Amino acid sequence: MRSLLISSLGLALLVSGCAKREGLQSKEALQAGIERYLQKQSKIALSNMTMEIQDVKFQGDRAEAQVKFRSKQAPDLAVGVHYVLRRAGDEWEVQSSSAAGGMGGNPHAGAVGQASAPPPSGSAPQSSH
Questions:
Q1: Residue 56 belongs to what domain range?
Q2: Closest CA to 61 of 92, 82, 83, 37
Q3: Considering its fold, how many domains does the chain have in total?
Q4: Tens digit of pLDDT for each residue in 94-126?
Q5: Which of 2, 18, 20, 48 is the 20 to 30 A CA-CA neighbour of 105?
Q6: CATH code of the domain covering residue 102
Q7: Which string of b and e fits 40-77 if b means at least 16 CB within 10 Å?
Q8: Starting at the edge strand that comes first in sequence, how are the strands of the sheet with 62-71 ordered?
Q9: Looking at the DSSP assignment, which residues form a beta bridge with residue 99?
């Protein structure tokens, strides 16, 4: 009887641990980590944007995510960012971010302050002359 109880307890712990790990390997868990990271950035007005997690790849304690930020004031304006995250305990932490396509620079430059973003693909900047 005692061994049955111990076995049942061990199985319950194993199942709960697996469920917890599966919860960490979700778009929602990555989004929470990215949001925590962005809230620490003083020049980013997260409330002016919507975040769309588009593609996620999990590799053990590492994950990569392609994220699109859209302006709430002008939804046709969007900025793509590639994130690399590392699992730290029960949450994800951003290790690096880059503009989608690997352009370098500040990937959040178009999301800083007001809802500004680079012109949509295919449109050139207009001359002020």
A1: 23-111
A2: 92
A3: 1
A4: 999 999 764 444 455 444 433 333 333 343 334
A5: 48
A6: 3.10.450.630
A7: eeeebeeebbeeebeebebeeeebbbebbbbbeeeeeb
A8: 49-59, 62-71, 78-88, 91-99
A9: 81
Residue 75: band (very low, low, confident or very high) from pLDDT cuts 50, 70, 90: confident
With respect to residue 118, please indicate whether it lies within any of the assigned structural domains. no
Q: Enter the pTM of the model.
A: 0.62
Secondary structure class of 90 (helix, strand, coil): coil
HSE, side-chain direction, 13 A CA sphere, residue 84:
6
Q: CA geometry: angle at 114 spanning 73 and 71, to 5°?
A: 35
Q: Which residue is it, tokens 């990271």?
A: 37
